[in-house]
Write the structure tokens for this entry.
Amino acid sequence: MHSDSADDVRKGIRGYLKIGIALWVFTVITVAVNQVHLAVPLAVTVALLIALTKGSMVAAVFMHLSHEKRWIYGSLILCVVGFVLVICLPLFTIGDTIGTPIDVARGAAEHAAR
């Protein structure tokens, strides 16, 4: 009986180590993506997707949500849906001119009209 609990502890530690390594790998990916210098809306979207992945791993394993009841998953899914909507917000700003000086926006509009 003692060996069963020791095996459970080893499996738990192994799982924590796997998640720790995965979090480290995603951190390296985050730094690598930053070096690519993507357009701001795409960069924000990619960063939020990586953060969503890392946050899900932390919540599932370290916060033990993978062992909780269904209603907790319901609230987690609601949060994920809201987060996905927030992720999509930068994509909606690709064509806007908010924050662009007026003369630059006017010149771009005139150039597009030609």
Notes: The chain has a mean pLDDT of 81.
